């Protein structure tokens, strides 16, 4: 149920009132009443105040002191000022007099949602970094770099907060490379953009064993609205609130949406290989996005993939061809990349000690800063 975001514990003994609350709450599609047996922590507690209101309010105060996130709403047949004042004093957020009015319940739930979202915003900030990966040609290793960069960041963090977004419509390979079968893709977001918030997002992404949260592309066109620049902007703004690092496989697309992503990126990694036509493509690509003001040149990183010492083009000729220093040189390693693809595992899980994995780890160390690296023990092999 991707729409449900808040769980409500309804502690209202009066059957009539209980049913009225339940109906109004469940109709929102966002809040859901949970039973006492459900293990789910409630986000909101709705209580009916009985005769012994002083003692009950004291107990609620003790409860609120311990629970730092749960809010309490009260319903009572009595609404004398002294009850209201005491309720307010202990931090009760809403008070419903009887008879109940469904629209007042909905308004109160809406206010709860707004308070929650504001809190999320202020506590998380909007500090996530967007690292896009752009191919200068098909087949140069864009997806390999995107997937393994995301994994490398995740495994080099104690509490990884990494998302991987695949923008290759129909041809997105990310789930294959990670051997996952995500239930959702960003087509679900373009279809439900008005519902998009952090909770919806959390239900849409699929977590891989490395801690990377994956948002794949649609496998079929399926009539979902295409990801417009505005939709992507909304999505990425939200992802920046939720994740520390967002890695995007842009494939080779240079449409309006991809350009908006480039514009929003902290760094764009352009993937090239050791071939003159590819290096000259890279040069034109970098100049285009820089000259049109989508990104500053210093934030474009050139990645030379599949590097062979004995290759036809030397590193200095490659830099000359691109017109920019190489930021990262990834060795050619056919057997590790092939066995990674064939087993649906990231390179890190296939050959932790290989040169190619070391290359990813070294780059991540450079990218994040040594002080931010905490290699965690990998338990998922
Ligand atoms: N460093 C490397 N060494 C050897 N092989 C590599 C390396 N990087 C990628 N490859 C191989 O190159 C092939 C293409 O890789 P990948 O799918 O990542 O490229 P792509 O640019 O995303 O392709 P597409 O344009 O189809 O999306 C794969 O078989 C992959 O294993
Ligand atoms: Mg690809």
UniProtKB/TrEMBL annotation:
Signal peptide: none annotated. Keywords: ATP-binding, Nucleotide-binding. GO terms for molecular function: ATP binding; ATP hydrolysis activity. Pfam families: AAA_31. It comes from the Bacteria. Gene3D superfamilies: 3.40.50.2300, P-loop containing nucleotide triphosphate hydrolases. GO terms for biological process: negative regulation of cell division. Residues 129-276 form the AAA domain. The keyword Nucleotide-binding applies. InterPro entries: AAA_dom, CheY-like_superfamily, P-loop_NTPase, ParA/MinD_ATPase. GO terms for cellular component: cytoplasmic side of plasma membrane; cytosol. PANTHER family: SEPTUM SITE-DETERMINING PROTEIN MIND HOMOLOG, CHLOROPLASTIC (PTHR43384:SF6), SEPTUM SITE-DETERMINING PROTEIN MIND HOMOLOG, CHLOROPLASTIC-RELATED (PTHR43384). This is Putative response regulator protein. It comes from Desulfobacula toluolica (strain DSM 7467 / Tol2).
């Amino acid at each position: 149920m991707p729409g449900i975001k808040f769980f409500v514990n309804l502690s209202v003994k009066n059957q009539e009132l209980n049913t009225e609350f339940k109906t109004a709450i469940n109709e929102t599609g966002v809040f859901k009443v949970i039973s006492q047996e459900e293990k789910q922590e409630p986000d909101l507690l709705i209580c009916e105040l009985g005769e012994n209101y002083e003692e009950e309010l004291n107990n609620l105060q003790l409860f609120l002191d311990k629970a730092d996130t749960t809010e309490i709403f009260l319903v009572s047949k009595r609404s004398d000022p002294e009850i209201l004042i005491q309720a307010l004093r202990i931090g009760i957020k809403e008070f419903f007099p009887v008879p109940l009015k469904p629209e007042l319940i909905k308004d109160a739930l809406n206010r709860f949602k707004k308070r929650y979202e504001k809190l999320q915003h202020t506590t998380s900030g909007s500090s996530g970094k967007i690292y896009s990966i752009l191919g200068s040609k098909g087949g140069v290793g864009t997806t390999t770099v995107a997937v393994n960069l995301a994994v490398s960041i995740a495994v080099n963090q104690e509490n990884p907060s990494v998302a991987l977004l695949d923008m290759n419509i129909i041809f997105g390979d990310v789930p294959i490379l990670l051997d996952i079968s995500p239930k959702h893709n960003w087509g679900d977001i373009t279809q439900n953009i008005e519902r998009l918030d952090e909770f919806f997002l959390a239900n849409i992404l699929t977590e891989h064993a490395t801690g990377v949260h994956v948002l794949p592309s649609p496998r079929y066109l399926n009539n979902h609205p295409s990801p417009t620049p505005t939709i992507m902007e909304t999505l990425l703004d939200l992802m920046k609130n939720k994740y520390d690092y967002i890695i995007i496989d842009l494939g080779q697309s240079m449409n309006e949406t991809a350009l908006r992503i480039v514009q929003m990126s902290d760094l764009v990694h352009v993937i090239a290989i050791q071939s003159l036509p590819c290096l000259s493509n890279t040069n034109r690509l970098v100049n285009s996005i820089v000259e049109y003001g989508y990104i500053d040149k210093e934030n474009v990183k050139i990645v030379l993939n599949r590097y062979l010492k004995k290759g036809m083009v030397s590193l200095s000729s490659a830099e000359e061809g691109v017109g920019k220093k190489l930021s990262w040189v990834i060795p050619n390693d056919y057997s590790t990349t092939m066995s990674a693809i064939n087993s649906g595992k990231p390179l890190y899980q296939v050959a932790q000690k290989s040169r190619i994995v070391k290359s990813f780890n070294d780059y991540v160390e450079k990218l994040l800063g040594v002080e931010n690296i905490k290699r965690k023990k990998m338990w998922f092999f």
